[in-house]
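Working notes for the structural subgroup meeting. M.R. asked for a predicted model of this chain before we commit to crystallization trials. I am recording the input and output together here so anyone reviewing the notebook later can reproduce the run.

Input as submitted:
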Amino acid sequence: MTAYDDLMAFQRTTEALAEVAARTGWDQETVMPRGAAPQRAEEMAALEEVLHARRTDPRLGEWLEAAEAPDDVARANLREVRRTFERNRKVPARLAAELARVTSLAQGQWATARATQDAASFLPVLAEVLRLRREEGAALADGGDPYDALMQDYEPGGSAADMAAMFDAMRPRLVALRERALSGGPAPALSGRFPAAGQMALAAEVARAFGYDMQRGRLDLAVHPFSSGSGLDARITTRVDEEDPFNCLYSTIHEVGHAAYEQNVAAEHLLTPIGQGVSMGVHESQSRSYENQMGRSEAFCGWLFGRMRDTFGDIGVASEREFYRAANAVRPGYIRTEADEVQYNLHIMLRFDLERAMILGDLQVADLEAAWSDRFAADFGVAVDRPSNGFLQDVHWSVGLMGYFPTYSLGNLFAGGLMQAVRRDVPDLDAALRRGNPSPATDWLRDRLQRFGALRGPAETIEHATGHAPSPEPLLAYLETKFADLYP
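Returned structure, recorded in token form:
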């Protein structure tokens, strides 16, 4: 056994335990009885103590120093182990366990506060989550920017400055496009009855059409849709609103994009450091290209229109074109996950600015609801009517994901370049999408990006797949072309 072999054997167990922890989190958000929350918090803390001890084991440093990397895969594995080892040993074990315990409790309190519109009941635990994440950010930053340090959990190599520059480049053209669309008159809207059973059956059909392997996954309901797991067990959730079937269908396609990335990583990388998606920005590039550039395309909407009428009967729109316009309607709205492609990134910019201000100490939790409402009114021209449509709509802050939100917009940017390359290489894609068959595109993404997992860094992953460095231009050009057609 070489040092590299010893390291990888040790790491395999760590990766397996991390998957167990993720499955415990999935259980909490889907089927766990609410009364189990205090005990689950202790269980999550115990698992985190074990994982933190393994991720900071002194032997890792010895193996890393002695290990030789004969190929690109070994070099990438060593890179990932070194990154997590150096990162985790800056965080005290006490803090890691306390974060796991508090965020487990906070998730349940968030769900209750959201359902009851009781924002005040959630603020104390959110303040505790924020205190712990600030402490973690300070430990990781070593005198640098704590928000940048926290971002590394989700986008290695990313920074607030890079994200701000991306938003500065995108905002003027997005605002202009939004104004054009909103002045173009109302889009068609679905109407009718959309029973939950029919929505879930169609969601499962669509998930399979986009390549989701139900033998290695499952589709369940949750308050906030999410994807969890990797390899042979990658699960997704969605939610149902009987007045809005798009919510269920497009949330499902979005989460399939995440899960397909994990399911399609090459089998030889299973339970290794590179055996998963390389970053949340790259992950989002998959979910956003599946959901929007394929799922909301005119070609796929033509197929989905027929399946919706088969399932529900009269749906309130009479043609494929009207259905396409309804699926891409630009209208004022509160909810990020329901936002159209034009306005979505504006929702992210709001969250990025607020969470960075909280981490840097410029915004206190007690002032968050008012700050959100003021910013939302300024950006969207609408007053927030209730907490679940405001700062309580997303689960992220309750579970400590500060630094995560900007990766959604980064994913949109990456998706723009990827789908430009897909359409270059698959010129007859629309013909397949009209048959409800996205596989020419999903196969391209599998072969050019997904199967490699974290073999390369985020930007390098996109450049390897597309042949070009990431840029906002393909995304903005795609949006301007699409919505000029929808809102002439």
